[in-house]
Amino acid sequence: MRKQNSIHPRFYCACCLISDMGVITLFRNYINYMSYIGINKLNNGKCACQYPKERLEHMRQKYAETRDLDLVHRMLQEQFLATTKDFLDLDDRQLEDIRRRGWGVAGVREGGTIVATKMPFEFHRYFEATTPEERRYRFCHCQGVREVIRRGDIFPKIYCYCGAGFYRGIWEHILQRPVKVEVLESVLFGGDFCRIAIHLSHDA
Q1: What H or E segment, with its residue span, contains residue 108?
Q2: In terms of CB atoms within 10 Å, which end of the chain has fewer, N or C?
Q3: pLDDT at 72 over 70
Q4: Residue 158: phi, psi to the nearest 5?
Q5: Element (H, E) at 114
Q6: Which residues contact 59 (CB under 8 A, 6 or more apart)?
Q7: Would you state the pLDDT for residue 14?
Q8: Chain segment 103-150, per-residue pLDDT in tens
Q9: How far apart are CA 43 and CA 30, in angstroms?
Q10: What is the mean pLDDT of residues 49-71?
């Protein structure tokens, strides 16, 4: 199997296909708008990149039948690892490293919260990077932010709530109720990773 350098390109939104300068201009306007409406209203939105709902449907049905969050969390984790192993041509050691780090769509459950740490977008090239800036560039999934990192520009943290909406969409579909998301860390403002907390309701 041919080794892929980046993960899940089929999840790209339209913004990922715009030229570099177009991305920067578009996102500057988007940031101004998001700063105006505020995080609370932004949290009611959806990310342009969405996990395919058909791949979540059996988890939604299973949760409706059992109300077992641990079960559907394991189902999501197993689906993610199987898909990623095949797509990136990973060996068992690499797959176990991903599991150990808590990387990927499913995240790690901490009580009523799921903490999801994204895995590097350019997975294989990430481990070949020689500087913190290059590692952040290889890690990021968003084309606009990647160009910001490359250019040494600065965007506010609020932008990453767009990416947090990716996880919000997953869990709201599975649970069929609203959840809240919180950006804990992002490569956009100097973090080593991108970590999102998905706060589930108390009766999850």
Answers
A1: strand 108-110
A2: N
A3: yes
A4: -60, -30
A5: strand 113-117
A6: 72, 75, 76, 174
A7: 44
A8: 999 999 999 999 999 999 999 999 999 999 999 999 998 877 788 888
A9: 15
A10: 94
Going from the C-alpha of 151 to that of each of 17, 98, 147, the distances in angstroms are: 18, 29, 6
Global pTM reads 0.78
Query: Tokens 């058909």 correspond to what residue?
Result: 54
pLDDT at 166: 92
The DSSP result for 177-196, as a single string, is S--EEEEEE-GGGT-SS-EE
117 phi and psi angles, rounded to 5 deg: -105, 120
Give the other-Cβ count within 10 Å of 150's Cβ.
14
User: Is 60 exceeded by the pLDDT of residue 91?
Assistant: yes
CB contact at 8 A, 137 and 152: no
Per the listing, tokens 């578009």 go with 26
DSSP result, 84-103:
HHHHHT--HHHHHHHHHHTB
Among 145, 142, 188, 192, residue whose Cα is nearest residue 166: 142
Cβ atoms of 141 and 170 closer than 8 Å: no
Output the six-digit token pair for 181: 């998301």
Flag whether pLDDT at 82 surpasses 60: yes
